[in-house]
Write a sequence for this structure.
């Protein structure tokens, strides 16, 4: 054997990790050091190809990596230490699993001989993260490390994307072994996600679409995950068929909000026209969405008269909540392309004028109506003003979770995919601020705004410090109503208006808080001052906390009430006390 | 049922439950069984019986046989959820193929004297159970068969001085020349 010291592929485990990141095109990672990852941090120190962003809490690293991933289509990478470092990653990993975000987390672990001994900062990381990752690995031999790292990137980004975790004991980081660049044999032979759709199923789908009288396209986050080709095919399909299109929260931007066939978002806080179209349609084409309970409402009354086509890359999404007639497993970009090809060759645009007339009547209900005020800023108005002020700019929006998130989805129009980062499945308050950090790292010259609530934003406020350190001029646009608004809304509607612990009695002074972090604070109370303040926020090239004081008791409508179907929505003008009481009559089981 | 005040429709569906036997071929690697069991507990599926052992050592393959119950929709879900796990090669629904053989092995300890001992031996003979341990006051029987046969045998042993039972759980294989 030749002298191993001259073999460039001989290196320590820690060096392999950095090398693998470079080989996978990673330029930025988010992390927090600690005892069990110090060898890796030592390697990071001695190179310049991978930039490390130091967060203030590991949860922030995870959400930042998610924001980075969703705004670029590339995997996000987080690096955390053992024990608390790993347990703090559980929320972002679960969030990424629910929303199918490609995330690679590398965690340090105590040395192999101490595993199982309750060592300092030891926890069963692979055990804890098993149900919240797509797959995870504990690497006990440095010679397995390269293979596992390459497989981790492949698993995270292929098929239905998701988070993965590689747990690396400290002695494995120190040990020397052989590295190899990525190769096909690194991946389990048992893992082969299907990408191409079945031709027979595609023909069945086209036959249904071609003869539809009342069709609808319902698209989801899968279209965005699939990449630019899927978005292009979706838009072309809408153009070629002339069908109306709605989308889930996760799918916003795949079809432009300014497009003439756009119905707005569907589901619990979706528009009246989107939900009625879903309910009354005769053919539904679901692309890359999963019939979540927030979408379907009461499942036994969900779109009762329709034939349903479901395109999904994950076979377990088929018939999980709603029985469908034509399932097609595969990548939605591929399948939409095939559908288009067959449709163009064999079908012509169905005549659905009557259906559009019906939809126009539903649209005329103006379900997103709200009453403006000269005295107090309405949250809907604040989002609309923000949208107007950022129109034509290179803008990315993240959100926290709650009323502000739903208002952002309703009132901010997205024209392109990858511009909207929100915690859809898990509903993680505190997602938006660190996600904005990640987005800004990926897009340093773009305008990145976290539309936040006063309660959510305090969950991960510490990442303001990260933004200041790395000169990331993120804008935190807080709709401050001093309540956990969505909790309060449910308490009002479902729990006899007993506002149990949904009011924040001690709100920080967000302006002073921004200044304390070294950012800029802006506060606005009056509708007349709003536009000017937003312009000021945009022009500041530093992190901003924007404290937008809004009407405290405004609620989010329209809304599908308890156990009701799409055609039983509560519209804003009906949401007086009596109608609300009636719609939500019953017991108290809140889920 | 009075629908409670929730955005969800909470009433359970009342489709009839079915029992299915699933054969799952997996990569034999650390944690693979925990993944499979975690899936069942995490998603609220039932495990009636679980058998697992390495079956092809060179290829590091293990075969897991799971007997589960659920509505047809839930059974479909279970199969898809198993199939998408990274170390899972194949999932075959042995019940759906209707061409499978299922066997279980049980060791049954019976303690007694006189007429009871004679009766236990006579029944063992009828069920083709073998005596694999004996003392002057006890037997351990080994019996192989499908789950019903073993249940029946155990029921018969109960009045004759049944002490304890150790069962392997169900193993299943398809009939005919083809593998899974």
């Amino acid at each position: 054997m030749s002298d191993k010291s001259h073999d460039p592929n001989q290196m320590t485990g820690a060096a392999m990790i950095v090398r693998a990141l470079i080989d996978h095109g990673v330029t930025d990672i988010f992390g927090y050091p600690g005892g069990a990852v110090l060898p890796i941090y030592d390697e990071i120190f001695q190179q310049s190809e991978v930039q490390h962003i130091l967060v203030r809490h590991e949860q922030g690293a995870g959400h930042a990596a998610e924001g980075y991933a969703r705004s670029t289509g590339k995997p996000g990478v987080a690096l955390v230490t053992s024990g608390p470092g790993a347990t703090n990653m559980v929320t972002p990993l679960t969030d990424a699993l629910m929303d199918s975000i490609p995330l690679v987390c590398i965690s340090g672990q105590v040395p192999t001989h101490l595993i199982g001994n309750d060592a300092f900062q030891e926890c069963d990381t692979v055990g804890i993260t098993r149900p919240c990752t797509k797959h995870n690995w504990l690497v006990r031999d440095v010679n397995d490390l390269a293979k596992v790292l390459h497989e981790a990137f492949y698993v995270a980004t292929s098929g239905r994307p998701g988070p993965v975790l590689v747990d690396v004991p400290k002695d494995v980081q120190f040990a020397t072994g052989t590295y190899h660049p990525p190769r096909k044999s690194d991946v389990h032979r048992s893992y082969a996600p299907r990408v191409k759709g079945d031709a027979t199923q595609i023909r069945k789908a086209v036959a249904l679409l071609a003869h539809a009288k009342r069709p609808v396209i319902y698209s989801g986050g899968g279209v965005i995950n699939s990449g630019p080709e899927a978005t292009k095919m979706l838009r072309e399909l809408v153009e070629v068929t002339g069908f109306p299109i709605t989308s889930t929260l996760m799918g916003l931007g795949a079809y432009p909000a300014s497009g003439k066939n756009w119905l707005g978002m569907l589901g619990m806080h979706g528009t009246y026209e989107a939900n009625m179209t879903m309910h009354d349609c005769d053919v539904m084409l679901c692309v890359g969405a999963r019939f979540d309970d927030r979408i379907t409402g009461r499942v036994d009354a969900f779109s009762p008269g329709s034939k349903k086509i479901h395109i999904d890359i994950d076979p377990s999404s088929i018939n999980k909540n709603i029985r469908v007639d034509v399932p097609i497993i595969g990548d939605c970009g591929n399948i939409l392309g095939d559908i288009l090809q067959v449709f163009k060759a064999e079908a012509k645009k169905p005549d659905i004028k009557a259906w559009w007339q019906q939809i126009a009547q539903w649209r005329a209900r103006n379900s997103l109506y709200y009453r403006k005020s000269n005295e107090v800023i309405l949250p809907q108005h604040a989002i609309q003003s923000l949208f107007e002020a950022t129109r034509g700019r290179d803008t990315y929006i993240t959100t926290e979770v709650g009323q502000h998130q739903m208002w952002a989805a309703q009132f901010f129009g997205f024209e392109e995919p990858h511009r909207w980062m929100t915690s859809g499945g898990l509903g993680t308050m505190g997602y938006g601020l660190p996600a904005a950090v990640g987005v800004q790292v990926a897009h340093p010259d773009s305008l990145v705004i976290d539309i936040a609530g006063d309660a959510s934003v305090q969950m991960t406020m510490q990442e303001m410090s990260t933004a200041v350190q790395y000169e990331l001029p993120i804008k935190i646009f807080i709709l401050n109503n001093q309540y956990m608004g969505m909790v309060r809304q449910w308490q009002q509607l479902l729990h006899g208006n007993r506002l149990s612990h949904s009011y924040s009695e001690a709100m920080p002074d967000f302006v002073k808080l921004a200044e304390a972090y070294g950012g800029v604070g802006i506060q606005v109370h009056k509708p007349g001052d709003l536009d000017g303040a937003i312009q000021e926020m945009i022009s500041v090239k530093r992190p901003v906390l924007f404290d937008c004081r809004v009407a405290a008791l405004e609620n989010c409508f329209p809304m599908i009430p308890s156990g009701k179907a799409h055609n039983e929505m509560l519209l804003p003008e009906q949401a007086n006390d009596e109608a609300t009481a009636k719609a939500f009559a019953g017991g108290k089981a809140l889920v | 049922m009075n629908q409670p005040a929730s955005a969800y429709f909470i009433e359970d569906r009342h489709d009839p439950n079915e029992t299915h036997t699933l054969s799952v071929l997996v990569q034999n690697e650390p944690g693979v069984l925990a993944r499979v069991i975690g899936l069942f507990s995490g998603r609220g599926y039932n495990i009636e019986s679980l058998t697992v052992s390495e079956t092809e050592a060179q290829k590091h393959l293990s075969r897991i046989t799971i007997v589960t119950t659920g509505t047809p929709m839930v059974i479909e879900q279970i199969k898809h959820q198993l199939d998408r796990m990274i170390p899972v090669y194949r999932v075959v629904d042995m019940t759906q193929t209707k061409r499978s053989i299922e066997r279980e092995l049980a060791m049954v300890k019976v303690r007694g004297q006189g007429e009871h001992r004679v009766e236990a031996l006579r029944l063992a003979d009828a069920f083709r159970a073998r005596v694999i341990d004996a003392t002057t006051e006890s037997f351990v029987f080994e019996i192989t068969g499908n789950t019903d046969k073993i249940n029946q045998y155990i029921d018969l042993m109960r009045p004759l001085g049944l002490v304890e039972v150790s069962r392997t759980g169900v193993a299943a294989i398809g009939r005919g020349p083809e593998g899974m």
In short: Residues 18-97 of chain B form a domain with the Alpha-Beta Plaits fold (CATH 3.30.70.260). The beta strands of chain B are 18-27, 49-56, 61-70, 88-93, 100-111, 130-135, 138-145, 162-167, 171-174. Helices of chain B lie at 32-42, 72-83, 94-97, 115-126, 147-157. DSSP finds five helices and nine strands in chain B.
